[in-house]
Amino acid sequence: MATVLITDDASLIRAQLRDIITDLGHEVVGEAVDGRDAIEKNEQLDPDVILMDITMPNLSGTEAVREIRKRDPNVKIIMCSAMGQQRLVVDAIEAGAQDFIVKPFTPERVKQAFLYILSNV
Asked: What's the topology of domain 3-119?
């Protein structure tokens, strides 16, 4: 079981991810609404995994990944992107994310991402 921080500016997406993650047997320890919030909550909650939206107000997911990686190189990060954001996904992977899921996501794809990043320790 992993502890998870969900970061997305849309409450509906956070709720969907929370349900999927708990159904997979993981624990959601917090939710963040933008990149700045994710950086703060990562330090407070020390999750094993962060699900991070790419496009958010205040601080993008990619910028947050760069900052989080400086402070916490061991946390696993899965990016969430909308269709057509391939360049942003590449930027996020280069910044330190390990995998990505595309919205609208399926529970099966979220499960695959978790299996992938948790098996690549």
From this structure: Rossmann fold (3.40.50)
